[in-house]
Design goal:
The chain has 501 residues and is of the alpha+beta class. The chain has 3 domains: 86 residues, SET domain (Beta-clip-like, Beta Complex); 156 residues, no CATH class; 122 residues. Helix content is 45%, strand content 12%. The chain has a 4-stranded antiparallel β-sheet with strand order 11-12-13-14. It has a 3-stranded antiparallel β-sheet with strand order 3-9-8, with no helix packed on it. A 3-stranded antiparallel β-sheet has the order 4-6-5. A hairpin with an 8-residue loop joins strand 12 and strand 13. The structure holds S-adenosylmethionine. The site of S-adenosylmethionine has 19 residues, from strand 2, helix 8 and strand 7. This is SET domain-containing protein SmydA-8-like. It comes from Sitophilus oryzae. InterPro entries: SET_dom, SET_dom_sf, SET_SmydA-8. GO terms for molecular function: N-methyltransferase activity; protein methyltransferase activity; S-adenosylmethionine-dependent methyltransferase activity.
Length: 501
């Protein structure tokens, strides 16, 4: 079946163009695959190689244009050679040395817009049909500081020193807007972030609970087919059902998601999750009431950021503005430990977890974010590998996984990457814990067999999700590992039961 059969484009006054399924879709069905129109460094990028997009120290420069690359193998990659390299070398625009190559490098702001503009000239048809019609929100962006920033760092730079004055100011601003509103992040094989303009993927409307799954397969070989996205149904989608992706981090609370969408995508999200005081029963925005101890504090009108927040049991009330401050403070605390790994990372996150346990609903977004990080650390951090963990920590890891999955089943249903990873993280502790219990005579052989089967079933679900991920990415590699582990477990199941004691 051709991809045109799987979705079609419709239009309405609220979202503009959007996509609907043109037939019933089941989880995992490939809706389409596409190569980007262009890809390149993100806005606010640090210095990266202009061929493979890995970070560089800027000591090695392209022999033709003198902008940063890893070496001769990267300067000849088409994504650089056929784009900015020509422009910079013809106009003799040199890269200005930077003190710290890991800082944001303003000179890089122009790279991806140049690539879009040059691709427009090479592929006029795709530009006209798929890209020129994209939303740029120029009118909303004009009064914002970003417009002036782009005028100075991109528009004037391209039309002046880069001698690209064949592109009008309006067109360059529109390209900047198209990128800001429509580009998706992807990771290079070394896991560095770039942005890609996928015109079909950008047709999907936003919903804070998405029903599609997209995975970008990036090989770093520097041509356009290098970064192909595969879009699948994450859950059952009936014929005529709208296809939704999520433009935000799904584990943020409503106030934060809506603010992000307002600021960067220029619309007020009113999806069912945002409209519901309880976030579809997850309570990812709710606080525990400090006055009555029985109720939870929820927004009276979640689509109004400044509404009153009330306790469900007593007359306690507060204000959306105050809640936003509370969320910002907690987010800040969590951000501070973002890169702290190992024992320290575990201790610091557990401390924050304990601190907010009596304040936030157990499934609150920030408790969920902490859970997700702790799950990754327990079982991997030094001194905390799965074989090292005592039962009490195995139990902690299982509890964290089950609680996280309860939330993910609602906000990331079906074939979502984070569900796959969490299921994978859960299967190991179940198996390990059951073996210990059996060895201590705390459970019978039949119970052990049952627990082992539960673990294998969970691993199977992880395999079904993660083997859809490209093997160029860590999740795809995890999928391969999970598949091997699953095959071995199935083959040796009886022997494992017999020899575990
Ligand atoms: C990536 S584009 C999606 C395609 C776009 N509708 C079009 O016609 O080109 C994102 C823009 O679509 C609109 N949009 C997407 N989802 C929306 C939603 N749930 N509510 C309102 N507007 C939405 C907003 O204007 C947003 O900036």
């Amino acid at each position: 079946m051709s991809e045109q059969d799987l979705f079609k484009i419709e239009t309405n006054n609220t979202v503009g163009r959007y996509s609907v399924a043109s037939q019933d879709l089941k989880p995992g069905d490939v809706i389409f695959k596409e190569a980007p129109f262009a890809y390149g460094p993100k806005s606010d990028s640090a210095c990266v190689c202009l061929g493979c997009h890995n970070p560089v120290d800027c000591a090695t420069l392209c022999s033709k244009c003198s902008w940063p690359v890893c070496g001769p193998q990267c300067e000849v990659l088409s994504v650089h050679k056929d784009n900015e390299c020509d422009v910079f070398s013809n106009a003799k625009v040199k890269f200005q040395a930077v003190e710290d190559p890991t800082d944001v490098c303003l000179q890089y702001e122009c790279i991806t817009p140049i690539r879009v503009l040059l691709e427009k000239e090479r592929d006029q048809k795709r530009w006209e049909e798929e890209v020129s019609v994209m939303e740029s929100h120029n009118e909303q962006r004009k009064p914002k500081p970003i417009w002036e920033f782009n005028q100075h760092n991109i528009v004037e730079y391209l039309r002046g020193p880069c001698k690209l004055d064949r592109f009008s100011e309006d067109l360059i601003h529109t390209v900047c807007g198209i990128l800001e509103v429509n580009a998706f992040e992807a990771r290079t094989p070394n896991c560095y972030m770039i942005r890609c303009l996928f015109p079909k993927l950008a047709l999907m409307s936003h919903n804070c609970v998405s029903n599609i799954h997209h995975a970008v397969d990036c090989h770093g070989n520097g041509n356009l087919k290098d970064c192909v996205v595969t879009v699948r149904a994450a859950i059952h989608i009936p014929k005529g059902g709208e296809l939704y992706s999520s433009y935000t981090y799904s584990i943020w609370p409503t106030l934060v998601r809506r603010e992000f969408l307002r600021e960067s995508k220029f619309f007020e999200c009113a999806c069912p999750r945002c409209s519901d005081k309880t976030e579809l029963g997850t309570h990812m925005s709710s606080l525990k009431c400090q006055r009555c101890d029985n109720g939870v504090v929820v927004a009276s009108d979640p689509l109004n950021d400044l509404c009153e927040w009330n306790c469900t049991h007593c007359d306690y009330k507060t204000h959306g503005g105050a809640m936003r401050k509370v969320f910002a403070a907690i987010q800040n605390e969590i951000d501070q430990v973002e890169y702290v790994g190992g024992h320290e990372g575990i201790q610091q996150r557990e401390t924050i977890f304990r601190k907010y346990k009596s304040v936030l609903h157990p499934k609150h977004a920030y408790m969920t974010i902490l859970r997700s990080a702790l799950i990754q650390l327990y079982g991997k951090a030094e001194g905390y590998t799965l074989g090292d963990l005592p039962d009490v920590i195995l139990e902690r890891k299982m509890e964290l996984c089950y609680q996280l999955l309860e939330v993910l089943d609602v906000i990331e249903p079906g074939l979502s990457r984070i569900r796959g990873i969490t299921l994978y993280e859960l299967h190991g502790p179940i198996m390990m814990h059951a073996r210990h219990q059996y060895q201590y005579d705390a459970i019978s052989k039949d119970d052990f067999r049952q627990k082992l089967k539960e673990s294998v079933d969970i691993l199977k679900q992880a395999v079904e999700i993660l083997t859809n991920e490209p093997v160029s990415q860590p999740e795809g590699q995890l999928g391969q590992m999970a598949q091997t582990a699953y095959d071995q477990l199935i083959e040796n199941f009886d022997m494992l039961v017999e020899t575990a004691y």
